[in-house]
Design a protein that fits this description.
Blueprint: H1 2-18, E1 37-40, H2 42-45, H3 51-64, H4 66-69, E2 73-75, E3 81-84, E4 90-92, H5 99-108, E5 112-117, H6 134-144, E6 148-152, H7 156-166, H8 173-191, E7 197-201, H9 208-211, E8 219-221, H10 230-238, E9 252-254, H11 267-279, E10 284-286, H12 295-301, H13 304-310, E11 319-324, E12 327-333, E13 339-345, E14 351-356, H14 357-360, E15 367-370, E16 376-377, E17 383-388, E18 392-399
Parallel strand pairs: 1-2, 1-10, 2-5, 5-6, 6-7, 7-8, 8-9
Antiparallel strand pairs: 3-4, 11-12, 12-13, 13-18, 14-17, 15-16, 15-18
Helix pairs in contact: 3-5, 6-8, 7-8, 10-11, 11-12, 11-13
The protein binds alpha-D-galactopyranose.
């Protein structure tokens, strides 16, 4: 009898392991063929965001030229949610009087509409979320014209932890539940018939990059939250080494939204932020107040050469070439045999950063352009060397 019980347990466990929940989404792989670009309310407005702020952001995307540079998603983050009625239909709170009108407003400006929820009962800011209302919520989003959903684990973690405690024998239970929850919403989104980009936000747990595509994710956060400091931004950005093989057209690693223009980093630091994110083929989701943008912020967010590196049709993420002391060199393969290279100085004083064409795997002499200045660069004796400011970068494009 004891033998039988053990045999049954082994069978169940191995079946359980083999059958991690997966989505069978026909829509997901057709979306986000390049990393999504747009704006999100959280980094600047956080819990104070209103419908008017989002309309102002949409207007600013058009007026500043950001939309035409590629920033098309207008994404409301947490704190739009109100209460559910007796039928379970979720309503907005008073900060968002008319979501359908807001969606129409955004679309009328040639932009796309993004929204936010959680698979748990509540969001991270403790507002109502989608647990046990997945299809109802997906249908509601579709009726508002939503094109993008950020689905943030938040309180669902509590459910995962409780289940794991109740079943200590099932080591995979909480990870299986997490995937199940993400599959459930992907299915619900697909069921609406609207092509909705699916942004997984669970801070990188359980190496999400290994299974994000299988649950129908188009992008997945690889880390905890960014903030507007050099320490946090650079820690997140430079810790993305080794993840390049998991990104491809349709699904991207997401080291979190941009802080450029929020005011607490220097221009060099924001250039490093942008350069690193484009080398990472990261989603470029601006997080600043677009109605009050400095010329510096505009020139960084809208630099054509930098955006072209991010959006390159080859769809390959870059990775680290070498790191030595404060010097950190990254490269990203581009279409047509071109290569983007970032020479970063993470140190506290100005310093020359060097890399050889050999280290970059570049064989012949090429045209080399400094992306931020537009100047031509010479690789003397097969060596690229640049004097790089403190916390700064020289971003290059090498074209055959
Ligand atoms: C989490 C996410 C953030 C943001 C907040 C909102 O912290 O990681 O990006 O969405 O929740 O509450």
């Amino acid at each position: 009898m004891r033998w039988l019980a053990a045999a049954v347990y082994v069978t169940v466990c191995s079946v359980g392991l083999a059958q991690m929940p997966a989505a069978n989404s026909k829509i997901a792989p057709t979306l986000a063929q390049t990393p999504p670009m747009g704006w999100n309310s959280w980094n600047h407005f956080a819990g104070k965001v209103t419908q008017q702020d989002v309309m102002d952001a949409a207007d600013a995307l058009v007026k500043t030229g950001m939309r035409d540079a590629g920033y098309v998603y207008v994404n409301i983050d947490d704190t739009w949610e109100g209460e559910r009625d007796a039928q379970g239909v979720l309503h907005t709170n008073s900060k968002f009087p008319d979501m359908k009108a807001l969606g129409d407003y955004i679309h009328s400006r040639g932009l796309k509409f993004g929204i936010y929820s959680s698979p748990g009962p509540t969001t991270c800011a403790k507002f109502a979320a989608s647990y046990q209302h997945e299809q109802q919520d997906a249908d509601l989003y579709a009726s508002w014209g939503v094109d993008y959903l950020k689905y943030d684990l938040c309180s669902y973690r509590g459910l995962m932890n409780d289940a794991a405690k109740a079943h200590p024998e099932d080591a995979e239970l909480s990870n299986r539940m997490m995937r199940e929850a993400y599959v459930k919403m992907r299915d619900a989104l697909d069921h609406t018939g609207r092509p909705i980009v699916y942004s997984l936000c669970q801070y990188g747990f359980d190496n999400v990059w290994e299974w994000g595509p299988s649950v129908g994710g188009n992008l997945w956060r690889t880390t905890g939250d960014i903030n507007d400091t050099w320490d946090r931004m650079s820690l997140i950005g430079f810790s993305q080494a080794g993840l390049s093989k998991y990104a491809a057209p349709g699904h991207w690693n997401d080291p979190d939204m941009l802080e450029i223009g929020n005011g607490k980093m220097s221009t060099d630091e924001y250039r490093t932020h942008m350069s690193l994110w484009v080398l990472l083929a990261a989603p470029l989701i601006a997080g600043n107040d677009l109605s009050k943008m400095s010329d510096d912020a505009k020139s960084i967010l809208m630099n054509k050469g930098a955006i072209a590196i991010d959006q390159d049709s080859l769809g390959k993420q870059g990775d680290r070439v070498y790191e030595e002391g404060p010097h950190d060199v990254w490269s990203k393969p581009l279409s047509g045999g071109a290569l983007a290279v970032g020479l970063f100085n993470r140190g506290e004083s100005v310093s020359p950063v060097t890399v050889t064409l050999k280290q970059l795997g570049v064989k012949k002499a090429h045209a080399i352009v400094n992306v931020w200045t537009g100047e031509a660069v010479d690789a003397k004796d097969g060596t690229l060397s640049a004097v790089v400011p403190r916390h700064g970068v020289v971003l290059l494009r090498i074209t055959p």
